[in-house]
Amino acid sequence: MLAGRIYGLHDYRLGEAEMPKIEKPTDALVKVTATAICTSEIHYAEGFQPLTAPFTTGHEFVGTIIEIGDEVKKFKVGDHVNVATYPFCGECPVCKSGNTGHCPNGALFGSDPAWGNLNGAMAEYVRVPFADTSCVIVPENVKDEETLLVADMMGTGYQGVTQAEVKEGDIVVVSGLGPVGLCAVALAKMRNPKMVIGIGRREERLKAAIECGADYVIDSDIGNDAIYEKVKEITGGDPLYAGSMIFEGFADSYIDTCGVASSSDLGLRLLKVGGRLSQVSMVNPDNYVFNMHTVCMKNITVQGGLTNLNDMQYLMDVLAEGKINVAPIITHVFPLSEFDKALDIFAHKKDGSIKVVLKP
What is the pLDDT of residue 43? Predict the structure, then answer.
């Protein structure tokens, strides 16, 4: 079958892969109807994390079940499902604690041995371990393209909103307006904050943030000092600590989807005393320095994490009920046969791309 494969460093292209099959009684075999490219694929191929190739990449997908193992009880052949990026057993202590994305029995779709050695979904077919816990039914009124966001982009954005404890009346800042940040904007808006401010670059992403629910957007290219003054203007400033170099701040919650030190530094400056900083991005520890001094001086709560796969059904319901608009995030759709072209457009942010979808 055709598949998007990583063959080595800087070498990712369409190739032939072995047809998957049922290996365990808890497995399902899924015919992929749509899959999306994630920045993680670029990280793998460009050497940002360990790499043992070759393998089929891709961990965001939706498809139709064509075969099930003997112990699969919740699903049947013909069901159209969205699948967790990291299939999990649901029975171990880690899963029962709620940390399903860290299941020791699981693995990441589209990974080498470092993340579980599970072939991914940029292919015509994929084997899904732990099908009963790792799949949710796709409602008929939800498009495949939008469904693709549920397990990872929406899940991670929602993790950011949850960790930031966004509530009614809050001032919320979302840093980074890629797919995760845009989902965070939309999901934060559901909690009726006073305002949501999106910070990012590229005209198409700033426009998409407004369409997803942001009240204001700021181009990050103006620099942190100018952003600080802009947020001060938008929010009306800080009447309690106005002018204080240590305590002044304007936001209750700051959701960082960038993973760079300049973004977290900005968040710590923008947060009020007692504010919450939520980190939901991949961070390169080799060049990331975090300002704990400001954390302590402002009594800021900092929390980081990955998508909680237990939220998939809730997020699917949110889409089905039309409570958020994520359509602006999907900018390109290609057939799987154009994998090379699609990956090039996504990796280099060409043609106004935000989220790129492939259809086998």
Answer: 74
CA distance 22 to 134: 15
Taking residues 199-210, report their average pLDDT. Answer: 97
CA distances from 211 to 10, 204, 253 (A): 35, 11, 21
Angle at 268 between CA 263 and CA 272, to 5 degrees: 135
- Annotate the chain with three-state secondary structure: CEEEEEEECCEEEEEECCCCCCCCCCCEEEEEEEEECCHHHHHHHCCCCCCCCCEECCCEEEEEEEEECCCCCCCCCCCEEEECCCCCCCCCHHHHCCCHHHCCCCCCECCCHHHCCECCCCECEEEECCHHHHEEECCCCCCHHHHCCHHHHHHHHHHHHHHCCCCCCCEEEEECCCHHHHHHHHHHHCCCCCEEEEEECCHHHHHHHHHHCCCEEEEHHHCHHHHHHHHHHHHCCCCCCCCCCCCCCCEEEEEECCCCHHHHHHHHHHEEEEEEEEECCCCCHHHCCCCHHHHHHHCCEEEECCCCHHHHHHHHHHHHCCCCCCHHHEEEEEEHHHHHHHHHHHHCCHHHCCEEEEEC
Q: What is the overall mean pLDDT for the chain?
A: 93
What mean pLDDT is predicted for residues 215-225?
97
Average of per-residue pLDDT across 179-203: 97
Which residues have CB under 8 Å from 218's CB, separation 6+? 197, 198, 199, 227, 230, 231
Q: What pLDDT digit, counting tens, does each position of 113-153 carry?
A: 877 889 999 999 999 999 999 999 999 999 999 999 999 99
Using CA atoms, how far apart are residues 86 and 61, in angstroms rounded to an integer? 11
Q: Is the model's pLDDT at 49 over the cut of 70?
A: no
Task: Report the candidate in 183, 216, 220 with the shortest Cα–Cα distance to residue 201.
Answer: 220
Amino acid at 109: F
| 296 class by beta-carbon count within 10 Å (0-12 exposed, 13-18 middle, 19+ buried) | exposed
- Going by C-alpha positions, the residue among 60, 44, 33, 17 that lies closest to residue 347 is 44
